[in-house]
Target: GTP-binding protein 8
Amino acid sequence: SRVLRLEQSRRTGIMFPLQKLERHLAPGTDTTRFHLFQPGLAALERAESLFRSGQGHPIDYVSSAVRMDHAPPPALPEVCFIGRSNVGKSSLIRALFSLAPEVEVRVSKTPGHTKKMNFFKVGKYFTLVDMPGYGYRAPQDFVEMVEAYLQERHTLKRTFLLVDGVIGLQKMDHIAVEMLEEFGIPYVMVLTKIDRVAQGPLLKNVLGIQEFLKENTQGCFPQLFLVSSVEFSGVHLLRCFVAHVTGNLPAVEDT
Model:
Protein backbone atom coordinates (compact mmCIF):
# COMPACT_ATOMS: atom_id res chain seq x y z
CA SER A 1 0.00 0.00 0.00
CA ARG A 2 2.87 2.39 0.76
CA VAL A 3 4.39 1.65 -2.63
CA LEU A 4 1.23 2.82 -4.36
CA ARG A 5 1.66 6.22 -2.70
CA LEU A 6 5.27 6.75 -3.78
CA GLU A 7 6.13 9.38 -6.36
CA GLN A 8 6.03 8.01 -9.89
CA SER A 9 9.73 7.35 -10.63
CA ARG A 10 10.29 5.38 -7.40
CA ARG A 11 6.99 3.56 -7.82
CA THR A 12 7.88 2.57 -11.39
CA GLY A 13 11.23 1.18 -10.26
CA ILE A 14 9.57 -1.16 -7.78
CA MET A 15 6.46 -2.08 -9.72
CA PHE A 16 7.94 -2.28 -13.24
CA PRO A 17 11.57 -3.46 -12.90
CA LEU A 18 11.69 -4.40 -16.58
CA GLN A 19 11.03 -0.78 -17.54
CA LYS A 20 13.75 0.33 -15.11
CA LEU A 21 16.25 -1.52 -17.33
CA GLU A 22 15.23 0.46 -20.41
CA ARG A 23 17.51 3.39 -19.54
CA HIS A 24 20.50 1.10 -20.17
CA LEU A 25 19.44 0.17 -23.72
CA ALA A 26 20.99 1.66 -26.82
CA PRO A 27 18.90 4.39 -28.49
CA GLY A 28 16.48 2.98 -31.04
CA THR A 29 16.20 -0.47 -29.41
CA ASP A 30 12.73 -1.96 -29.82
CA THR A 31 11.16 -2.02 -26.35
CA THR A 32 7.68 -3.20 -27.38
CA ARG A 33 8.04 -6.37 -25.33
CA PHE A 34 8.79 -4.29 -22.23
CA HIS A 35 5.32 -2.70 -22.25
CA LEU A 36 2.77 -5.30 -23.35
CA PHE A 37 1.20 -5.54 -19.90
CA GLN A 38 1.23 -2.10 -18.28
CA PRO A 39 -1.73 -1.70 -15.92
CA GLY A 40 -2.64 1.55 -14.25
CA LEU A 41 -2.95 2.22 -10.53
CA ALA A 42 -6.63 1.25 -10.35
CA ALA A 43 -5.89 -2.20 -11.74
CA LEU A 44 -2.89 -2.63 -9.43
CA GLU A 45 -5.00 -1.68 -6.43
CA ARG A 46 -7.78 -4.07 -7.48
CA ALA A 47 -5.25 -6.91 -7.75
CA GLU A 48 -3.79 -6.05 -4.35
CA SER A 49 -7.25 -6.28 -2.79
CA LEU A 50 -7.63 -9.82 -4.15
CA PHE A 51 -4.42 -10.87 -2.41
CA ARG A 52 -5.42 -9.26 0.91
CA SER A 53 -7.39 -11.62 3.12
CA GLY A 54 -10.33 -10.31 5.10
CA GLN A 55 -13.77 -11.10 6.40
CA GLY A 56 -15.69 -12.74 3.60
CA HIS A 57 -12.51 -13.13 1.55
CA PRO A 58 -10.38 -15.92 3.03
CA ILE A 59 -7.09 -16.97 1.45
CA ASP A 60 -6.41 -20.55 2.46
CA TYR A 61 -4.09 -23.46 1.87
CA VAL A 62 -6.48 -26.12 0.60
CA SER A 63 -4.57 -29.37 0.21
CA SER A 64 -1.57 -31.13 -1.32
CA ALA A 65 -1.55 -33.89 -3.90
CA VAL A 66 0.93 -36.26 -5.51
CA ARG A 67 -1.59 -37.56 -8.06
CA MET A 68 -4.42 -35.91 -9.94
CA ASP A 69 -7.04 -38.07 -8.23
CA HIS A 70 -5.89 -36.49 -4.94
CA ALA A 71 -6.22 -32.91 -6.24
CA PRO A 72 -9.18 -30.79 -5.09
CA PRO A 73 -12.06 -30.49 -7.58
CA PRO A 74 -11.35 -27.91 -10.32
CA ALA A 75 -13.96 -25.32 -9.38
CA LEU A 76 -12.16 -21.98 -9.90
CA PRO A 77 -9.80 -20.52 -12.51
CA GLU A 78 -6.30 -21.75 -11.71
CA VAL A 79 -2.68 -20.69 -12.18
CA CYS A 80 0.37 -22.81 -11.41
CA PHE A 81 3.98 -21.93 -10.64
CA ILE A 82 6.71 -24.25 -11.85
CA GLY A 83 10.49 -23.98 -12.03
CA ARG A 84 13.86 -25.54 -11.34
CA SER A 85 14.66 -26.56 -7.77
CA ASN A 86 16.06 -23.60 -5.80
CA VAL A 87 14.71 -21.01 -8.26
CA GLY A 88 12.87 -19.25 -5.42
CA LYS A 89 9.37 -20.46 -6.24
CA SER A 90 8.05 -20.85 -2.69
CA SER A 91 9.66 -17.54 -1.68
CA LEU A 92 7.86 -15.78 -4.52
CA ILE A 93 4.51 -17.34 -3.61
CA ARG A 94 5.03 -16.27 -0.01
CA ALA A 95 5.70 -12.71 -1.25
CA LEU A 96 2.53 -12.78 -3.35
CA PHE A 97 0.60 -13.80 -0.22
CA SER A 98 2.34 -11.32 2.09
CA LEU A 99 -0.98 -9.51 2.65
CA ALA A 100 -2.43 -12.75 4.04
CA PRO A 101 0.15 -13.63 6.72
CA GLU A 102 -2.02 -16.46 8.05
CA VAL A 103 -1.29 -18.42 4.86
CA GLU A 104 1.68 -20.70 5.51
CA VAL A 105 3.96 -21.14 2.51
CA ARG A 106 6.88 -23.25 3.62
CA VAL A 107 10.26 -22.01 2.38
CA SER A 108 13.40 -24.11 2.81
CA LYS A 109 17.10 -23.45 2.21
CA THR A 110 17.29 -26.99 0.83
CA PRO A 111 16.60 -27.25 -2.94
CA GLY A 112 13.72 -29.51 -3.90
CA HIS A 113 11.77 -28.98 -0.69
CA THR A 114 8.38 -28.96 -2.44
CA LYS A 115 7.48 -32.57 -3.22
CA LYS A 116 3.76 -32.21 -3.87
CA MET A 117 1.32 -29.97 -5.70
CA ASN A 118 0.14 -27.44 -3.10
CA PHE A 119 -3.21 -25.73 -3.70
CA PHE A 120 -4.09 -22.28 -2.32
CA LYS A 121 -7.59 -20.86 -2.72
CA VAL A 122 -7.95 -17.09 -3.06
CA GLY A 123 -11.50 -16.40 -1.91
CA LYS A 124 -14.09 -17.18 -4.57
CA TYR A 125 -11.83 -15.90 -7.34
CA PHE A 126 -9.02 -18.32 -8.23
CA THR A 127 -6.67 -21.08 -7.07
CA LEU A 128 -2.86 -20.85 -7.08
CA VAL A 129 -0.83 -24.05 -7.31
CA ASP A 130 2.76 -24.44 -6.14
CA MET A 131 4.29 -27.26 -8.20
CA PRO A 132 7.35 -29.36 -7.24
CA GLY A 133 10.67 -28.14 -8.60
CA TYR A 134 12.34 -29.97 -11.47
CA GLY A 135 15.99 -30.95 -11.70
CA TYR A 136 17.94 -31.51 -8.48
CA ARG A 137 16.03 -33.57 -5.88
CA ALA A 138 12.83 -33.54 -7.94
CA PRO A 139 10.21 -36.06 -6.78
CA GLN A 140 10.60 -39.47 -8.39
CA ASP A 141 7.18 -39.23 -10.03
CA PHE A 142 7.65 -35.56 -11.03
CA VAL A 143 7.09 -36.07 -14.76
CA GLU A 144 3.95 -38.16 -14.29
CA MET A 145 2.54 -35.74 -11.71
CA VAL A 146 3.22 -32.51 -13.59
CA GLU A 147 2.38 -33.70 -17.08
CA ALA A 148 -0.94 -35.11 -15.87
CA TYR A 149 -1.79 -31.82 -14.16
CA LEU A 150 -0.89 -29.67 -17.17
CA GLN A 151 -2.80 -31.83 -19.64
CA GLU A 152 -5.88 -32.64 -17.56
CA ARG A 153 -6.59 -29.52 -15.48
CA HIS A 154 -9.19 -27.79 -17.64
CA THR A 155 -9.44 -24.80 -15.25
CA LEU A 156 -5.72 -23.97 -15.69
CA LYS A 157 -5.52 -20.47 -17.18
CA ARG A 158 -1.77 -19.79 -17.15
CA THR A 159 1.45 -21.51 -16.13
CA PHE A 160 4.18 -19.33 -14.62
CA LEU A 161 7.60 -20.73 -15.51
CA LEU A 162 10.23 -19.40 -13.09
CA VAL A 163 13.83 -18.93 -14.26
CA ASP A 164 16.79 -17.81 -12.14
CA GLY A 165 17.52 -14.20 -13.17
CA VAL A 166 21.16 -14.55 -12.11
CA ILE A 167 22.10 -17.48 -14.34
CA GLY A 168 19.42 -17.34 -17.03
CA LEU A 169 17.98 -20.26 -18.96
CA GLN A 170 19.43 -23.68 -18.14
CA LYS A 171 19.09 -27.02 -19.93
CA MET A 172 16.25 -28.10 -17.65
CA ASP A 173 14.41 -24.84 -18.37
CA HIS A 174 14.64 -25.56 -22.10
CA ILE A 175 13.06 -28.97 -21.46
CA ALA A 176 10.24 -27.30 -19.50
CA VAL A 177 9.64 -24.86 -22.37
CA GLU A 178 9.54 -27.73 -24.86
CA MET A 179 6.99 -29.55 -22.68
CA LEU A 180 4.71 -26.51 -22.40
CA GLU A 181 4.97 -25.86 -26.13
CA GLU A 182 4.22 -29.51 -26.94
CA PHE A 183 1.11 -29.48 -24.73
CA GLY A 184 -0.06 -26.12 -26.10
CA ILE A 185 -0.17 -24.65 -22.58
CA PRO A 186 -0.25 -20.82 -22.37
CA TYR A 187 2.55 -19.70 -20.08
CA VAL A 188 4.61 -16.73 -18.99
CA MET A 189 8.26 -16.58 -17.94
CA VAL A 190 9.25 -15.02 -14.61
CA LEU A 191 12.87 -14.12 -13.78
CA THR A 192 13.52 -14.45 -10.04
CA LYS A 193 16.26 -13.19 -7.69
CA ILE A 194 16.88 -9.98 -9.63
CA ASP A 195 18.22 -8.35 -6.45
CA ARG A 196 21.25 -10.67 -6.69
CA VAL A 197 22.46 -9.53 -10.11
CA ALA A 198 23.80 -6.21 -11.41
CA GLN A 199 21.82 -4.27 -13.99
CA GLY A 200 24.20 -5.05 -16.87
CA PRO A 201 24.20 -8.87 -16.57
CA LEU A 202 20.46 -8.82 -15.82
CA LEU A 203 19.75 -6.84 -18.98
CA LYS A 204 21.94 -9.23 -20.98
CA ASN A 205 19.91 -12.18 -19.63
CA VAL A 206 16.64 -10.40 -20.39
CA LEU A 207 17.56 -9.62 -23.99
CA GLY A 208 18.92 -13.13 -24.56
CA ILE A 209 15.77 -14.77 -23.18
CA GLN A 210 13.51 -12.42 -25.15
CA GLU A 211 15.31 -13.44 -28.34
CA PHE A 212 15.00 -17.11 -27.41
CA LEU A 213 11.26 -16.74 -26.81
CA LYS A 214 10.77 -14.87 -30.07
CA GLU A 215 12.50 -17.58 -32.09
CA ASN A 216 11.45 -20.75 -30.28
CA THR A 217 8.04 -20.31 -28.65
CA GLN A 218 4.42 -19.75 -29.56
CA GLY A 219 2.59 -20.21 -26.26
CA CYS A 220 4.70 -17.88 -24.09
CA PHE A 221 3.49 -14.36 -23.34
CA PRO A 222 6.19 -12.18 -24.98
CA GLN A 223 6.80 -9.93 -21.94
CA LEU A 224 9.09 -11.21 -19.18
CA PHE A 225 8.21 -10.58 -15.54
CA LEU A 226 11.13 -9.69 -13.26
CA VAL A 227 10.75 -10.21 -9.51
CA SER A 228 12.64 -10.05 -6.24
CA SER A 229 11.04 -11.73 -3.25
CA VAL A 230 13.52 -9.86 -1.02
CA GLU A 231 13.05 -6.30 -2.31
CA PHE A 232 9.47 -6.94 -3.51
CA SER A 233 10.27 -5.64 -7.00
CA GLY A 234 7.77 -6.78 -9.61
CA VAL A 235 5.45 -8.47 -7.11
CA HIS A 236 2.62 -5.94 -7.55
CA LEU A 237 2.73 -6.36 -11.34
CA LEU A 238 2.76 -10.15 -11.08
CA ARG A 239 -0.28 -10.07 -8.78
CA CYS A 240 -2.02 -7.91 -11.34
CA PHE A 241 -1.21 -10.33 -14.17
CA VAL A 242 -2.52 -13.28 -12.13
CA ALA A 243 -5.75 -11.35 -11.50
CA HIS A 244 -5.96 -10.54 -15.20
CA VAL A 245 -5.47 -14.07 -16.58
CA THR A 246 -7.94 -15.54 -14.07
CA GLY A 247 -10.63 -13.15 -15.30
CA ASN A 248 -10.71 -10.99 -12.18
CA LEU A 249 -9.51 -7.79 -13.82
CA PRO A 250 -12.05 -7.09 -16.56
CA ALA A 251 -10.36 -3.93 -17.84
CA VAL A 252 -6.63 -3.28 -17.60
CA GLU A 253 -6.17 0.36 -18.47
CA ASP A 254 -2.81 1.77 -19.54
CA THR A 255 -0.90 4.19 -17.35
In short: The longest strand covers residues 156-164. The helical segments are 8-15, 17-20, 41-50, 89-96, 142-152, 171-183, 199-216, 235-245.
